[in-house]
Amino acid sequence: MGLRYSFSRKRSRFTGLIALVSMLGMVLGVASLITVLSVMNGFAGELQQRILSLVPHAYLESSADGIADWQALATDLRARPGVVAVSPYISDKVIFSGRYLLHGGVLTAIDVGAEGEVSRVPQAIVNGSLERLESEPFSVVLGSALARLLGVMPGDSVEVTVPRITVTPLGAFPRTKRLQVVGLFEVGAQPDTYQAYVSLDTGQRLLGERGRVEGLQVKTLDLYRAPEIVRELAPTLPADITVRDWSQTQGSLFRAVKMEKIMVSLLLLSVVAVAAFNIVSTLVMSVAEKRRDIAVLRTMGASARGIMVVFVAHGLGLALVGIGVGALLGSLLATYIAPVTAFVEVLLGVKLFDPQVYFISELPARLLGGDVLAVVLASLTLSLLATLYPAWRAARVAPAEVLRYE
């Protein structure tokens, strides 16, 4: 009976229009929420893949002035369970001087031969060669976006100012050195704008770490088990060695992405809430239209609870159609968001996502069944809550007052 009320053609046109608007609002809200959650999942996946491709699973650092006997420590670590590879590094913040401007960045000295075992830096080279860092002293590989900002290409040179002081008879001056650009790397993420690499020997000379390294980069068997493996390693290391895994060095970024997803979900859920509470208007008008039907049912023995169930089913019938269509539409849109975006770009003649600005050329999307289920359940809950008050009002209709003048 409730479903007959929901889809009957005998309703007034105005009531039917309100019901249609309620369903369309539900479709729009559910589809938008599913699509946006899928796009945010895609962005999080892209961010994780691109940034963590340059970031080792864990770092070992000395609280003293670097690690002197790092070769022995690296050999010991490679023998530990769960550790796949170890590579030394020295890193510091510097100022790069190019043709056009000064730009801050991070200069990291690496063991070129071992770096490929702990990160994907060698695979990210798009121009030049990482191996030339070893064969050519005082050479550097820059992020592609950083090189573009500085106005340099392989074969040019950049001046690097490091946070070290050189004392001369004329006074103390910051240490500067001109480095030859021998390559560019690109991962399509923020490190392209600030990261640069030099060989370990160049880094030791430039940053004043003669024979020492700042720490060791560690790759574990599984990226997601790295925190657990690191916790097992920590008690067995020397007292002056501290260990940090990627969730500590990059965790704030991914926590921020997760929090952003939650906040956007809550904001878009308000659209679903508005559509759900439009059902209140539909049911209130239906109750006003069906007062005589309610009175007849009550005189025939229907209970107040039965009348309430009828109008709850009436509201949920409208909501279920909107939620079902919205979930289907949102899933299809999330699955085919890339070709849809490409079609819009062709139609409008504009590039919506410039890779030089957004690091992406198309919207990434990752549809998760858990997200779809959560959206559907949340929408059903809001719809159920929206039906309770009008259904309760319907159950309180007094048959005698309605039928008095019939």
Automatic annotation (TrEMBL):
Residues 20-228 form the MacB-like periplasmic core domain. This is Lipoprotein-releasing ABC transporter permease subunit. Keywords: Cell membrane, Lipoprotein, Membrane, Transmembrane, Transmembrane helix, Transport. It comes from the Bacteria. One of its GO terms (biological process) is lipoprotein localization to outer membrane. The keyword Transmembrane applies. It comes from Parahaliea maris. InterPro entries: ABC3_permease_C (IPR003838), Lipoprotein-release_system (IPR051447), LolCE_TM (IPR011925), MacB_PCD (IPR025857). The chain crosses the membrane at residues 14-40, 262-285, 306-327, 333-353, 365-389.
